[in-house]
Amino acid sequence: GRGPSSFIPLGEILQEGAESSRRQLLIEAFVSAGRVDNITMVMGLHPQYLSSFWKTQYLLLRMDGPLPYHKRHYIAIMAAARHQCSYLVGLHMGEFLQVGGNPVWLQGLHCAPQKLRNLNEINKLLAHRPWLITKEHIEALLKTGENSWSLAELVQALVLLTHYHSLASFVFGCGINPEEEQDGGHGCRPPSPHGDSSPASDDSSGGKDAMREVEVLMERMKLLQESQLEEEGVTQEEMATRFELEKTESLLVAPSDLVDHSLQSSVLCFVEDPEFGYKDFTRRGEQAPPTFRAQ
C-alpha cells in the first residue's frame, strides 16, 4: 500500500535503469508541472500511453482554449466529485488555486457561478447514464442569456467532463494513493461497504473477510449454473433474477446509504443529487431507453 499505488509494488514503479523513454517523460512532466504526481508515476509503466495521455491533458488544461484555466480545473473537480474520487478533487483544488481561482468556489457547487452550476445536469448524466442525454440538454446550455455557453466553450467543457470521469476509473482501478501533501491518506478509494475508512492493508481480518465473501459468492454462482443445467425449464430471465437475488444478499454489495463521512465535506459539496447513479442501460424484456445520436 505504500508508494504511488496500493496495488503495484513500489520497487516495480521505481525500478532501476528504467528505459530512457520513460525517464525522459517523467523529466518532462516534472519540468512542465513542477512535480510528478502519482498518476504519472503509475502510468509511466506504459511510456507510449503516458505520452499520449500527457499531451492530451496538457492540451485540455494548459493550452489555448475558450475556457479560462481556473474554470477548466473547476470542471475537473465537478466531474471527479460525481464519482467520489477525492484524489482528483484534491489534486485540482490545488491547481485551481494556483491559477488564480476564487477560494470561495471551493466551499461547494452552490458557491460557483450559475454558468458552471448549469453543467450539473449534463455532468450527472454523462457520469452515470449518458444514453439519456438529448439534444434538449445541449440546447438548454447554448440558449442566449446571461449564463449561456458558447458552442466552443461547451465542447471543451464536455471533453473535460468525460476525460475526468474516465480518469476517476483509472485512479480507482490502479489504487492510486494521494500525494504526500494531499490531505487524507486514503481518499482515492470508494466508500467502504462497512463505513470503515482505515486502509485495508492495516486490517488483515477485513481482508480475510472479503476473501471469504468472494469465495461464498463464487460457490453460489457455481451452484446456480449447475441447477440451470439440471432444470431444463429454467429461462435465462429466471436465472438472472436468481443471481441478482444471491448477489444482493451477499455482504459484498454495500448498502447505498452508507457513505464515507470523510467524503461529505471534501467531495460531496461539489455534487447535487448524490443519489443519482448508474442504472442498467436496458434489460431483457424491457423497452430500450431513447438514445441521443449525432449525425
From TrEMBL:
Family: Belongs to the sestrin family.
First-listed, main subcellular location of the protein, grouped into a coarse class: cytoplasm
Keyword rRNA processing: no
Domain of life: Eukaryota
Gene responsible for this protein: Sesn2_0
Stretch list, region Disordered: 181-209
Substrates-to-products reaction catalysed: a hydroperoxide + L-cysteinyl-[protein] = S-hydroxy-L-cysteinyl-[protein] + an alcohol
Entry keywords, A to Z: Cytoplasm, Oxidoreductase
Localization in the cell: Cytoplasm
Biased composition (Low complexity): 194-204
Iron is among the record's keywords: no
Gene3D superfamilies in the record: AhpD-like (1.20.1290.10)
Protein's name according to its UniProt entry: SESN2 protein
GO cellular component: cytoplasm; nucleus
UniProt GO MF annotations: L-leucine binding; oxidoreductase activity, acting on peroxide as acceptor
Organism lineage: Eukaryota, Metazoa, Chordata, Craniata, Vertebrata
GO biological process: cellular response to L-leucine; cellular response to leucine starvation; negative regulation of TORC1 signaling; positive regulation of macroautophagy; regulation of response to reactive oxygen species
